[in-house]
What we know:
Elements: H1 16-19, H2 24-29, E1 30-31, E2 36-37, H3 41-44, H4 46-49, H5 54-65, H6 74-83
Antiparallel strand pairs: 1-2
Helix pairs in contact: 5-6
Domain Hydrophobic seed protein: 14-95
Protein name: Hydrophobic seed protein domain-containing protein
Pfam family, one: Hydrophob_seed
Amino acid sequence: MVTAASAHGGYGYCPSNVLGLDFTKCVTALDIFKLRINESCKQDCCPLIDGLVDVDAAICLCKKLYVPGVVDITVGVRLILNECGKYCPDDFQCSKYI
């Protein structure tokens, strides 16, 4: 279980206003199969999660970047969070939130 509390006092969630955003460019910035990010990440991804606490940002990315058939995108989410100056708890796994 993720033990880091989010700003609203729970264990993290993705606000509906963020879920409604278009993350297409963020998906493009993450080369999920090579587990690397390209130069456009800071421009295309970071603004989408700016203002969210770390765990909430991680959950939003998990939900929005999920691709059926890809077993686990947690590493990719961690790469994006790191690039955006956010922290992801060591025990965080996207599979718990999809």
